[in-house]
Amino acid sequence: MVAASKALGHTRFDYVLLKRYIPKPLLDFFSNRWIRIFHQGFILEAMNDSPYALAATDFNSIEEMHIFLNNHALKIKKTAVDAPTQDTTSQKKEIVFCIDETVLREMIKLEEKSDTILTNAKENYWSKISRKLLSYIESDECTRPDFQDMLKAVKNSHANRESVQ
Predict the structure, then answer these.
(1) Which of 66, 82, 127, 149 could form a disulfide with 114 if both were Cys (CB 3.0 to 4.6 A apart)?
(2) Is residue 47 part of a domain?
């Protein structure tokens, strides 16, 4: 999508603007393709070291699975939650999240819970990610107004629910 945006002469990626140029069926095709790729990746991660990994996927052979993993596998670095990080200010990095209202609602809950007490390291980890992701969506850096609108709607419904209680 970023490459298509640059090819069309845009200075920065803007999903709403790109929707005007690329037909909806083509956008839907790529969205569905990425969802299928992520699902296959999640299945393979869940079935890691299982003799049933091949049967749980649509792959016909181990070689086909290997090609998929080389092309699409998420490279998850196993590190401690609070491990010191390198200075990456000169490097541009990107991470992809599947966002919908349910995910945003849970992230808001985790962010609020971080102000009280977190029961385990995973909650602490996801609380930090939630805080960063939510602040990014609310910032001017976010190129997805649909995410911003979704977050506003979730926050409004969350505030309305709290005022009723």
Answers:
(1) 127
(2) yes
Residue 149 lies in a domain: yes
3-state SS track over 42-59: HHHHHCCCCCCCCCCCCC
Contact 22, 4 (CB under 8 A): yes
pTM above 0.70, yes or no: no
Contacts of 145 (CB under 8 A, 6+ apart): 15, 16
Question: Could you tell me the CA-to-CA distances from 97 to 63, 127, 130 in Å, in that order?
Answer: 28, 15, 11
Domain endpoint, select from 72, 89, 123: 72
Cα–Cα distance for residue pair 139/145, rounded to 1 Å: 10
**pLDDT 10s digits, 33-54:** 888 888 888 888 788 778 888 8
Within a domain: 159: yes
pLDDT in tens, 73-130: 655 555 555 455 555 555 556 677 778 888 888 888 887 776 666 567 777 788 888 8
Looking at the domain assignment, is residue 23 inside a domain?
Answer: yes
Q: Which domain holds residue 56?
A: 2-72
